[in-house]
Predict the structure.
Amino acid sequence: MNVGFDAKRVFHNATGLGNYSRDVLRILHRLRPEHAYFAYTPRPGKLPFDLDGGRFEVRGPRTLLARAFPSLWRTRGVVGDLRRDGIALFHGLSNELPAGIERSGVASVVTIHDLIFERFPELYPPVDRRIYAIKARSAVRRAGLVVAVSEQTARDLVELYGVPRGRIRVVYQTCHEAFRSPVPEERLREVAARYELPQRFLLAVGTIERRKNLLLALRALEGLPGVPLVAVGRPTPYAEELVSFARARGLAGRVRLLSGVSTPDLAAMYRLATLALYPSLFEGFGIPIVEALFSGTPVVTTRGGCFGEAGGPGSAYVDPHDADALRDTIARLLEDEGARARMRDEGLRHAARFSDEAIADGLFAAYDAALAAPR
């Protein structure tokens, strides 16, 4: 079977949606090599994984007109290329599908990562929010089947967009292989020395923005003498609020905000950290939780939403607005090595749900359902 993908973010998005798109293509190419895969992108680039075995082709705009207007080609013109390439099924990997695919005879699946822009509209510029909503609503209406990355996103699709639950399949995400592979002791020592990491520290990973709720972690630090917090992620104006708070409360020496950390370095940091914190208000899934579980690092995150799906029964959960509860939980776990060991073991067992094999099985079950759907 020929399977096509909207692959723009495979080549031109270094985080989030790009990581998901790359993982899908890598996993299916490796575990389902009997199929042929076509990656459609306005601007082709180098794939970041090995293409030994199987069939994988990258497709860009072919005509002068399509090359002159690559965005228009991606959102509409690509449908003609799908038919010419004999594509049986097309997967929109990031919340959108090209116009006209529903009339093309090509089966379609779209992955919806989250509807945060609907749940928390105040966090988005009005124009961006409107564009996201138009694309997502259109895609789920026209797709043969919708893949949600969590049960939380599936519930949002039913509640906010009226998508019948029978048209949705939940297929979880995985994380970069670096977090699932052992890190040599020598590498751990080198990273610890280069970043001047203490023997015990708390690690928070993710864009430093208001939704990630890092101020809660800083408020919890006030009653936890000694232990520092290392936050790794792209800064936004919210980072200045954190810096100001830390200075005003005498925490400046215990809070470090890092950006531009490489994936191999981050994989080592997870394994060096005593606890991983993820106090976010709302997510579609929560990849840093999964990264921590695969790394063997106990997780403290927030109650509700998708976090229980990602963190499993071994993680600790607190109210996202209760700094005292977070402080108490961190203090207890810092003192209880046995509890941390149990969390580590349960976390590794739960992480098996996010293996490459589980994702390949889930995606092809969704593809089979989409191919069987009337078109």
In short: The longest helix spans residues 126-142. The two ends are 18 Å apart (CA to CA). The mean pLDDT is 93. The chain has two domains: 2-174+355-372, 177-353.
